[in-house]
Amino acid sequence: MSEYEDILQKIRPFGPHQVRTFVLVSLFETPLAWAMLGPIFTAKTPLFSCSDKNQTLYLDTNATDSCEHKNVCESYVFQSDFTSIVSEWQLVCGRGAVADLITSLQMAGVLFGAVITGQLADIFGRKKILFIEYALLIVLWFSTGFVTVWELYAALRFLIGGLIGGCLVVNFVLPLEFVTPQWRTFCGCVGFWAVGLMTLALWAFLVRDWRHLDLAMSSTGVVILPLWWLIDESPRWLLSRGHLKEAQEIISKMAKFNKRPVPDMKCLQDFVQREKIRINEEKKYSYWHLFSSVNQTKGTLICMFGWFVSSSVYYGHNFNSKNLVGNMYLNVFISGLVEIPALIFVLFSNNHLGRRITVFLLMLLSGLACVAVLVIDIAGQGESMPGLTISMAMFGKSCISGAWAAVQILSAETFPTVIR
């Protein structure tokens, strides 16, 4: 155990101060979920029909049928109680792939932002980067409510995705650096993302115009910014950068908040020296070292595959929950609700069954549930068996949510510190 972790044990490894920090940082997840998953509603394709020469032709109605009219449509009539970017810019038929393209650009931005922000947070600090990127996110997100062309909207969604990805990286790391290793599984699994998904459904139900929805959610997200004065910088990061005095002040604050005596922190000087050596060692490593040996390559590829499967299935479930039979608002709400029991299961199974078995079991169950939905659909029973379809889809979503949380923890424990 390092000197820093030894001090955390003395002032309580997960005392009131750490609990407060964990809760406050986790609050970011709710508006981040709104921003990332908002396209479930804002990019929804309503039922529509072709309208030409002042004569509306109401076709039998799915979107594909409406695009198969023998005459080329110049305009469309959308039949829905909500508006979206699809109805706003008529992104149907020949432009039907644009809405999905915009969502894909956003997710590409998430990947880009996550990679870049990890480096920035190591250089400039966790807290500073988290709040700067979050503030920029709010500004860009709010500005989407005034965009008049889809091309600019797509560019903004890419940038928004980058900021979301960056915020999520720091949001995950920051609370972990206030606690000892035995509490990292808890902090890595528990959060407010599921709450964000459930409240997103409520937002969309109450606000049926996509512009007003983005404006309302981004404006509400501003309430997170004053947390700057309540959240401390990571003492571990401060020590790693040689800011010993600032780290000692925060540790003293933690001890007093936890009602523990302020410990002797002279030993932290040695910790600072070792951290400087470690950072110098890290500079010698790059992403190529993920493949530096046969065993390292094997572990890297397994983790990469786990992340790819988890993210693809998870976001596939989320962005397609609007297409399930039944009420789309209720379906999205339930898809957030089912994440909670899965995360509780991971908390216990990680310690009793192990990381690998937990990941394998949850991915297997999620895959079987997805296959069941596919079989029901191929058999043409989706409309006649809506309850079974939704149940299987939600069970699959629940399992993949837990699998992803387990994959995150497994990945963090797989790599040496210098390349983690």
From TrEMBL:
Keyword Ligase tagged: no
Membrane topology designation: Multi-pass membrane protein
Keywords linked to the UniProt accession: Membrane, Transmembrane, Transmembrane helix
Cell compartment(s), UniProt: Membrane
Transmembrane segments: 21-41, 97-117, 129-150, 156-174, 186-206, 212-231, 328-348, 357-376, 388-410
Name of the protein: Major facilitator superfamily (MFS) profile domain-containing protein
Domain of life (superkingdom): Eukaryota
GO cellular component: membrane
GO MF term list: transmembrane transporter activity
InterPro entries, per database record: MFS_sugar_transport-like, MFS_trans_sf
